[in-house]
Amino acid sequence: MFRYYFLLGVRSLRRNPALTALMVLTLAVGVAASISTLTILHVMSGDPIPQKSDRLFMPLMDNGPLKGYTPGEEPNDIQMSYRDAMNHLSAKIGERRAAMYGILMAIEPARKDLPAIESEGVATNKDFFAMFDTPFVHGQAWTENDDAKATDVVVLGNKLAEKLYGKTNPVGQYLTMIGHQFQIVGVLGPWEPSPRFYRFAGRNATFGEQEDFFIPLASAIRHEITHAGGMGCTGDTEPGWQGRLNSECTWISFWFELKTASLRQELQSYLDNYAADQRKLGRYMRQAKNKLFNVMEWMEETKVVGNDNKLSAWLAFGFLMLCLVNTVGLLLAKFSVRASEVGVRRALGASRKEIFNQFLIESSVIGLAGGVAGLILAFGALALIAMQSKQLTVVAHMDWQMLTITFVMSVTAAIVAGLFPTWRACQVTPAIQLKSQ
User: Fold this and answer.
1) How does pLDDT run across 258-282, given as a tens digit for each residue?
2) What phi-psi label fits residue 289: left (phi over 0), alpha (psi between -120 and 50 degrees) or beta?
3) In 3D, which of 422, 362, 407 has the Cα closest to residue 11?
4) Could you say which of 48, 177, 238, 332 is the most buried, measured as most Cβ atoms within 10 Å of its Cβ?
5) Distance between CA atoms of 86 and 276, rounded to whole angstroms?
6) SS3 sequence, the chain?
7) Distance separating alpha carbons of residues 92 and 266, to the nearest angstrom
8) Residues 6 or more apart from 62 whose CB is under 8 A from it?
């Protein structure tokens, strides 16, 4: 019977094409608005590295001075000083450790047809690549010896490598950066975790494209390459590059990778002991609580999905409810004109249950059509959003989960909207309808 009622539903759509089109459009607009907003929220709040997000930890420690400090006050910056980063790297705690900061460098392509390029990159250490599961299409990461000797080597992102060298393998070639020759040791494949949780600007996660290149942190320090991003300084600092390295200014991001999530308490004990040891040296005088955050906790702490994003989602679903109310009215109008048809069917022996099933399946057909139209509108809306900036390009895309949700939501919405009109249609009294014919 389902197939029969489904065909009846499809056929009924052609009886009043204007009214049907209006219902489908109303449902499609509501679904598109809610799905577009939900898709962006879904991408922003999703786990960017699910295979190990519970084993990666960002520490939050307060190395600020006592002057002007209120007990319980949160640190001004979520990064750490160069001194602390180097101490953690040498402590050998955990399976891997990665320190990093963003940099901007001028690149001089070997090709004469390309002008000099200012590119965004990351200064980090070897563990970065294995820690964050970065894919390589050519070559590999640099070695621990390169970190120790501050060797001028570079790993290119796939987009910059293709721009400079086309489809060829550039590993082994030299690239001029800030006037120095850096040897290319590897090229990454497409890698755009969303958000870029490993690097944060202030307390807002970065949504953007993959960095163009990666160089050893020690090499960046040797060349005195300044950071691109925020820096927090709460005390007096000596002038010059060495003054920055010796200062308490926070400008380096740091991550630990543990073998298992159960070793979290061991890492917490290490941080507490480290802070106590530094306190004996005249640092960490605030005695603030040292905190650890895994990836998802860190995203929550830094408010990746802010209240404005959540409010937008609620407003979109409110608009969908408004569209459903309008759909209910249109279905009432559509079903009311078919009272005589219902009366004849009831007189021929059709039960209320059969009438109910017929009209509910017809509502589902409308929902399916609305889902297809809503999906098209949603893709259009996301494309328009993506055109606004490179950051929005990363989050404004739909995956298979959202495709499934779109159809389920549209059909469910149509069924819910059709319950009351369908119930009203089932209340038709056959005798009254037959007498009026």
Assistant:
1) 999 999 999 999 999 999 999 999 8
2) beta
3) 362
4) 177
5) 17
6) CHHHHHHHHHHHCCCCHHHHHHHHHHHHHHHHHHHHHHHHHHHHHCCCCCCCCCCEEEEECCCCCCCCCCCCCCCCCCCECHHHHHHHHHHCCCCEEEEEEEEEEEEECCCCCCCCEEEEEEEECCHHHHHCCCCEEEECCCCHHHHHHCCCEEEECHHHHHHHHCCCCCCCCEEEECCEEEEEEEEECCCCCCCCCCCEECCEECCCCCCCEEEEHHHHHHCCCCCCCCCECCCCCCCHHHHHHHCCCECEEEEEECCCHHHHHHHHHHHHHHHHHHHHCCCCCCCCCCEEEEHHHHHHHCCCCCHHHHHHHHHHHHHHHHHHHHHHHHHHHHHHCCHHHHHHHHHCCCCHHHHHHHHHHHHHHHHHHHHHHHHHHHHHHHHHHHCCCHHHHHHCCCCHHHHHHHHHHHHHHHHHHHHHHHHHHHCCCHHHHHHCC
7) 13
8) 75, 284, 286, 288
Burial class (CB in 10 A: 0-12, 13-18, 19+), 67: exposed
Cα dihedral value 172, 174, 175, 177, nearest 10: 120
The Cα–Cα gap between 340 and 346 comes to 10
Strands 96-108 and 136-139: unpaired
Pairing type for strands 96-108 and 117-124 reads antiparallel
Q: Which two tokens stand for residue 354?
A: 């059969």
213-216 and 136-139 strand pairing = unpaired
Question: Does residue 264 contact residue 58 with C-beta atoms inside 8 Å?
Answer: no
Contact 386, 396 (CB under 8 A): yes
Residue 361, pLDDT > 70, answer yes
Q: What torsion, rounded to 10 degrees, do the Cα atoms 47, 48, 49, 53 define?
A: -50
Selection from 88, 267, 289, 120 nearest residue 199 by Cα: 120
pTM: 0.72
Token pair listed for 198: 């490993």
CA distance 129 to 13: 56
59, 81 contact by CB (below 8 A): no
Pairing of strands 96-108, 174-177: antiparallel
In this predicted model, what pLDDT tens digit does every residue of 119-174 receive, in sequence order?
A: 999 999 999 999 999 999 999 999 999 999 999 999 999 999 999 999 899 999 99
Q: Is 341 exposed, middle or buried (0-12, 13-18, 19+ CB in 10 A)?
A: middle
Strand 117-124 and strand 213-216: pairing? parallel
- CB of 80 closer than 8 Å to CB of 254: yes
Residue-wise pLDDT tens digits, 214-233: 999 999 999 999 988 778 88
